[in-house]
Amino acid sequence: MDMTANAVSLAGVTKSFGAVRAVDGLDLDIPQGQTVALLGPNGAGKSTTISVLLGLTAPDTGHVQVFDRPPAAAVRAGRLGAMPQEGGLIPRVTVGELLGFVAGTYATPLPVQEVLAMARLTGLARRRADRLSGGQAQRVRFALALAGDPDLLILDEPTAALDVEARREFWDGMRRFAARGKTILFSTHYLEEADEHADRIVVLDRGRVVADGGSREIKRLAALTTVGLTVTGDTSWLAGLPGVTAVEIRGRRAKLRSTDSDATVMALAQAGAVRDLEVAPADLEDAFIALTGRHAAVGASPPDSPTRTAPFTTTMPAAGTAGEESAA
Predict the structure, then answer these.
(1) How many CB atoms lie within 10 A of CB 269?
(2) What stretches of the chain adopt beta strand conformation (E)?
(3) For 153-209, what is each residue's pLDDT tens digit?
(4) Cα separation of 245 and 247, whole Å?
(5) Which residues does the UniProt record annotate as the domain ABC transporter (predicted)?
(6) Which domains does the chain have, with CATH numbers?
(7) How far apart are CA 44 and CA 27, in angstroms?
(8) What's CA 154's distance to the chain center, in Å?
(9) C-alpha angle with apex 320: 318 to 321, nearest 5 degrees?
(10) Phi and psi at residue 10, in whole multiples of 5°?
């Protein structure tokens, strides 16, 4: 394997569906061996980008290369494996039979027993594929993506149907796969997964890259600090404090996102409102909201009470409109 070449290269890629621009001049290079998380709110262009990379959707303009060849050629060569967000499994065959059949279509597949172990399916090898739980079926889709021993693995919301323990086991398998020098690109709404498992995070919004870097770089790019305090009574005035870009109220607790925490805290002190004060660097969710102006669809635990968020205006380019994606 030539580790000097990019696994993925997109240059000036656009894709529209009628009047809707789903991908808007996207440029993205992914070197071999990286694990990259693709983040963005619904309609950001994630699923369309993945579809273009898999050769399932042709771009309107631009160039797409996977290991220096068109995506369809990379798929035929067995260098690209994919795990879709959804998809049915063939009925009336066992998990082991299904994996054996798929592995047999590749020139140099992984041994079936190794794939079963990596996907935590060894104990289910003789179970019929149409008699699996949602989480078990998702692990089978993961195993099918691994069967050909691809150099690039593309995963669309890979842990959406898994519980906490199953997600932990899934990422253990992914780390073992990545340790073999493989490249992984995954989309997710679970921000903690991107924070913990990705070497690099690419944030999309309205079909464009609005941030690209490691988790610390993304947080630093957002230039935010969170200020927490206990509040009573009217809280509408908090949005007007110096540096505050957004306010969340959860019960009696207020969370302020601020670009100037010193000025925010001084204003709170002058107002006599410093109660149980906490000041902390922004987390990845804070950075996500700051960069896109929108909450992630899922990923953060729902608040105990309704959340009120003050308007936030991003300075990032916002040309084009959101893509037609139901779960992007």
Answers:
(1) 11
(2) 6-17, 20-31, 35-39, 61-66, 80-83, 152-156, 183-187, 200-205, 208-213, 225-230, 244-250, 253-258, 278-281
(3) 999 888 877 888 888 888 888 898 999 999 999 998 788 889 899 999 999 988 999
(4) 7
(5) 8-231
(6) 6-213 (3.40.50.300), 223-292 (3.30.70)
(7) 15
(8) 11
(9) 95
(10) -120, 135
